[in-house]
User: Fold this.
Amino acid sequence: MAKVSNRNAIQLAIFVAFGFLFGYDIGVISGCLIMPDFIRRFGELGPDGEYFLSSSRQSIITSLLSAGTFVGALAQAFTSDRFGRRGSILIWSGIFTAGVAVQTGTEYSIVQMTIGRFIAGLGVGALSAIVPLYNGETAPKALRGTLLVLYQLQIIVGIFLSYIIDLATHKIPSSASWRVPVGLQLVWGTIMLSGILFLPESPRHLLGTGRREEACTARRPTRPGVAVFRQWTFSGFS
Assistant:
């Protein structure tokens, strides 16, 4: 049973620590800033008749994500306690996906692009705090450290993946050069948004909110795969 439990724990962590979502969002914009179509749409027309992105515009595009992550990281403290870890991941995944949709649908408005970056940043900051918390509360104690390290590893993989995709699309002579790498985040967000619906709430959160009966009955088999998850979840408290 230990081998089965470990496998299910790792599978859960790989899904929940869809960490390259966070790393990808951080890294993808750096490649977009030097793409000709992106510069033409969101830059300024210089005296020589060429479009360019001023340092102020570059900084506002990049920094709004960080501003959003700061606010999101603080706000998740309230949602994770009020709505639970699972519900909070669902909420912030939806906010992140909405922010990416705003960015992808932008035509020429730098205001819309920066607002989209800020909204996506809210989700990135919140999920960056909730996901390790959820992993730590549900993973078996023997694997807890390993699974949290996996989260950080996936962030680095996401940064690397964003650079590869930027490199592959930067020569496309249309808005697809930057819409494709930015829009791919909709896939990552949708996977988290839908996948969390099939995962249970953290038993530690249930116990902490006085829902002991609900936490205890979580060990009962209800769906294939979830029963095993619930068994190794409770083993983490021992």
Remarks:
- The CA atoms of residues 15 and 134 lie 12 Å apart.
- The beta strands are 44-45, 51-52.
- Residues 110-138 form the longest helix (29 residues).
